[in-house]
Amino acid sequence: MIQIIDVVKRYHVRGGESTVLDHINLQVARGEKIGILGRNGAGKSTLIRLISGAERPTSGRIIRNMSVSWPLAFGGAFQGSLTGLDNLRFICRIYGTSTEDKIPFVQEFSELGKYLREPVKTYSAGMRARLAFAISMVVEFDCFLIDEIVAVGDSRFHEKCNLELFEKRKDRAMILVSHDPGFIREHCQHASVLVKGKLTSFDDIEEAFFYYNAHAAEVA
Amino acid sequence: MDSANLSLKRSFQIQVRVVGALLMREIITRYGRHNIGFLWLFVEPMMFTLGVTGLWSLAGASHGSALPIAAFALTGYSSVLLWRNMPGRCSGAIQPNLALMYHRHVKVIDIYASRILLEIAGTTASFILLGVVFTSIGLIKPPEDILKVIFGWFMLAWFGVSLALLVGALSERTEVIEKLWHPVSYLLFPLSGAVFMVDWLPSSSQSFILLLPMVHGVEILREGYFGSAVHAHYDMAYMAISNLLLLTLGISQVRVISRTVIPE
Prior knowledge:
Radius of gyration of chain A: 18 Å
Low-confidence stretches of chain B: none
Radius of gyration of chain B: 20 Å
Structural class of chain B: mainly alpha
Order of helices and strands of chain A: EEEHEEHHHEHEHEEH
Low-confidence stretches of chain A: none
Strand order of the largest sheet of chain A: 5-6-7-3-8-9
Mean pLDDT of chain B: 90
Largest sheet of chain B: none
Oligomer: heterodimer
Number of helices of chain A: 7
Strand content of chain A: 25-35%
Number of helices of chain B: 9
Largest interface: A-B, 27 and 25 residues
Shape of chain A: globular
Helix content of chain B: over 70%
Structural class of chain A: alpha/beta
């Protein structure tokens, strides 16, 4: 179970403070899949980072009673000067799993060939996404945080991601952020909508979309 | 109580793992796998010390003291490297590691810890290696009281760690710190006790120079090295209190920035 209790996140901006998340509450049970809807800049990625523990809330509490992944996004979580292989080694070290037996999977899934031994900063966006996803599948978690990770890449890459994440790991909890309504509809049981820093949760996905569309014009 | 102990033990294990992983990451990006690789860790400070020892030995004819110049340069310049390199490496250390902070276990303090450990290891290895080599070729005599040398080295390292945390954390709050640190460290070098013994100074300026904590560390280190050949001035209680204050200030500033760092 993950419990988000009364969480507030404010950032310092020029001329004062900006409240990105305003007294947010959310619960995620084991195996539950929740979609987060919101416009660009509504605070979806901030919420994901707070749940992952990479950032701390200004106030409120986040209780994690299961292991939670880092935010699986196509960009972050990698050091650009390190090679793909060294990034894999780094992540295996900090999560305390063995490395060498994971290399064949990452090699095969990422399809990077000899580029796996080149610095990540030389990769294209597609190559980064493939590496990011492959490394994400190396460490097992009870709950995966997915921030638009499958939004890039070609259809073959999408199929491979779907197989790894939604077939092989369908027993896990997931929190998904996506602009693609079809993606949320297909994979989530419930959805929550972020509007103006407030999070409203719906048991029914269609209700969530109705609410989202009704408030789409409101700027965060 | 039991579970609290367990989770503390577990936190410690995680921290050791993370600092270890960050150490490897630093070594790879700083020294790479080409030519001599991570040996640069101590070859780099060794080259500095060797160069300075060489220069001082050439100029040594006019230095007007009975102390052997090579040992004087080795103890002095190694001390400078020890306390000066750590703050330099911690200044602006978070930016290149922001992406790694996506991982919950990677904390600001771990990044500083890994860079500090590397710096201590490098300068210490360089000091020991040069000392052993210089002694075995008969360039310098072995230290008279090695425990005192180690104690001085430890105190200088403590000073460096404290200063590194403070400079590192403050550099995240304002860019001015990174710009200021270069001239400050440069100007502190001639004042740090590396190029003189306090006893050589006019007694009116001795009390001023002894306000600088690292001077005490270099003095006791040299007393350990040269023994009765020098008359050292130091107050280790003063240095310990200064170090402790600096460390407390440094850690509190690290705590402040830990709350505000945003992963890339």
